[in-house]
Amino acid sequence: METLLLHRSSPAAVAAIPNPNPKRPCCSSASGLNPSFTTSSNTSKSNIDVDVLLESFLGLSESSIDLSFDRILSFKASYSEQDDVIDRALQLGSALVEAGRRSARKRASMHNGVVWALPSDLTIKVFSLLDTQSLCYAAAACSFFQNCAADPACYVDIDLITVVPRVNNAVVATMVQRAGKVPQSLKLGCVPGPLASSSGSSQPLVNCIRKSTDTARFSWNDKRSRQGKESSILTRSCLAPLSANGESTPGACLRRLHLYNIERLDSTSLTAALSACPSLLDLEIVGLNVESRQTLESISTFCPLIERIFFESSKTGRDDSLKLPTCNDLVNNCPHLSSLSLRGFRLHDYKARVLIKGFRKLRYIDFSTSYSITGAFLKNLGGGSASGSLLQVLILRDCMHLKEVEVARFLEAVLAGDFGHLNYLDISNREGLVSEGDRNHRCYSPSFIPVARLLDERPNLCVLAEFPLEGSFNDIEFDSGDMDSEMNLPSHLIMSTSDSSASFMSISESSYSSDPSSGSDDSSSGYDESSDDVDHVSI
Amino acid sequence: MASSSKTEQKKMLILKSSEEEEFEIEESIAVQSGTIKNMVEDDFTLIPLPNVDTETLIKIIKYMKKHGEKTKSNEKDIEEFDKEFVKKSFTELKELVLAANYLHITSLIDLLCQAFADRIKNKSVKAIREIFGIPNDFTPEEEAEVYEQHKWAHEEGKEHIDHSAY
User: For all residues of chain A together, what is the average pLDDT?
Assistant: First the structure.
């Protein structure tokens, strides 16, 4: 208990202002007080004295304090004495203010308990549903929230995705540490756009290649301007906390790891991180400077349980490192893979084939923006009980060398009954498909698609084939990996049918006209004959 | 969607609120509450709930009735109901979650916690305090420390952070 320090003199009217002149009359109502020397709360009598004194002081009006203070000062003989008086007033005044504030805080804490009313376990439950950034805001609201926010349960899903680079290694380390041994999901990096994190769902917004490179450029410039300030970027050892602590590594329970546009993370660091995460089920890598071969090798070595791989290259079309042995390793070591997205790599048909045939449980394939792939890998794939028959989603957007004839062949196979589970096919291409016969000609019209027959025989199948009118780039965003998601597609050609609703087809006339500026005059004759040229694939 | 029409087997319970008001409810629906289930197993038919006031109890019974009739076909319907159910004031939600916690109705607890989380998400510190009426009880030093710890989250320039309490 704090007591006021009283000097050896008769107490003045105002709280404990030293009055060196004992003859000064005491106007205080606390009459009869002896001078006390107490500096600690030893004697209870002096405590009571102080209490009485303080209470009577608190009963004074501000103006009377003011006037009394002035009077006291005026009676001081020397300048230094006046100085002393003023100093004491300031000191004791702030002591009183601090005591008041402290009590106010205590009351506020108690009031929180009444106002918020939720006990810790419920509060922690609420907090565990928050994204990490909101969690930090909540923690700063009051001390109770701060305590609750420190519970490991709130850090099961660590989401450190920001729009601009803001998170540094220390933050990652702190969060992982707070999660104790139970981080299940870690999302890290920079994603541009409004939706930096997906609330709770395991499917974040997909960036198309162009966006991710834009981000990389942007974030680099930003980093340059930050040089000299404290580093707020992630370096290559940012994932080291996952491997920390020797035996019981935090990474051991990690199920989901999503990394976006962390420029400095290289293959070695990524491999080290993956080696600490044997339970990994869902890995998403966008815009990292890692090679496909090394990354996929690491995955096949360290993450046998993996179910979903989403891998978008940072060097669109130039990463050629994926070789056949790696594909074989991956297929052999990761039998549970059900969703595979390799975007922006130089992928050849035979490698794609190995991958698709090898994964028994594969349901979702996305090879968008792959170079070299022609679609030949689709031949003879889905028959009977062969692998690939479980396939539900196939996305081959913007594959520059995808041949129209191969797609047509594939669709014939679909009509013949293969790929019985397929419900979504996307072959949109901003530069059209490769026309038959002449690689210099592009096919811009989806007329090779046997629409009527598809509607008839495969009513569940949704085919998206967007080709440009003016060669303009159409940017479509959609939820990846989610079979049941709604497609909000503004395109001028969508074919979609479904069981319960009436089938609809909207094909705008304009999509059939070949674009004169594209220079492919022959395309108009090309696609009319394409369906005649389709081979019927025998199963 | 109607409960089974074997009326002779439909056992009714009486729930009594803290204000002594009584409400009849089918046992099959009431046992969505773990607490009530336990009491039923101990052969109670009149179940006093001194921690739950009348208004809250009425809402909880409404919830349990809706969720007790869950079938495959009305899932969307129930989703809509849930969405509307949480459009309540903070005070009401607070009472509800405390009651749901006491009654051990897991699905309701989850629903309400999510509603709270949704109201906290993407709000600034100030807004959080305002919405929930939580006074700041940090010392200036403590507050500085908290901000320092989460510095990355508190930097300027977050367009999507809502500084207003709605």
Answer: 70
Residue with tokens 């000064």: A24
User: Smallest CA–CA separation between A287 and chain B, in Å?
Assistant: 22
CB distance from B145 to chain A under 8 Å?
A: no
CB contact under 8 A, B129 and A116: no
What's the CA angle centered on B25, arms B19 and B26, to 5 degrees?
A: 155
Give, as one character, the DSSP assignment of residue A280. -
pLDDT digits (tens, 9 = 90+) for A23-68: 444 444 344 444 444 455 556 778 888 899 889 888 888 888 889 9
The average pLDDT across A164-176 equals 77
Tell me, yes or no, if B141 comes closer than 8 A to chain A by beta carbon: no
At A155 the three-state DSSP class reads helix
CB B27 within 8 A of CB B43: no
Confidence of residue A200 (pLDDT cuts 50, 70, 90): very low
Per the CB < 8 A criterion, the answer to whether A84 and A41 are in contact is: no
Q: Which amino acid is at A400?
A: M
**Alpha helix positions (H), B42-124:** 54-68, 75-85, 90-103, 106-120
Most A-contacting residue of B96, B112, B116, B159 (CB-CB within 10 A), to test interface: B116
- Whether the CB-CB separation of A370 and A498 falls below 8 Å is answered with no
Question: Per-residue pLDDT tens for A217-237?
Answer: 434 444 444 333 345 567 777
Tokens of A410: 């594939």
Q: Name the DSSP letter for residue A407.
A: H
Q: Which residues of B touch A232 (CB under 8 A)?
A: 152
* pLDDT band at residue B112 using 50, 70 and 90 as cut-offs: very high
Q: CA–CA separation, A238 vs A186, rounded Å? A: 12
Give the largest Cα separation in chain B, rounded: 67
- Does the pTM exceed 0.80? no
Q: What is the H or E stretch that residue A505 is in?
A: strand A504-507
- pLDDT per position as a tens digit, B27-74: 888 888 888 888 888 888 888 888 888 999 999 999 988 888 777 777
3-state secondary structure at position A53: helix
pLDDT, position B78: 86
Place of tokens 């305590």: A147
> d(Cα A445, Cα A442) in Å, to the nearest integer?
9
pLDDT band of residue A465 (cuts 50, 70, 90) is confident
The length of chain B in residues reads: 166
Tell me how far CA of residue A203 lies from CA of A37, A132, A159, A257, A468, in angstroms.
71, 17, 13, 12, 28
HEC profile of A412-478: HHHHCCCCCCCCEEECCCCCCEECCCCCCCEECCHHHCCHHHHHHHCCCCEEECCCCCCCCCCCCCC
Query: What is the amino acid identity at position A366?
Result: D
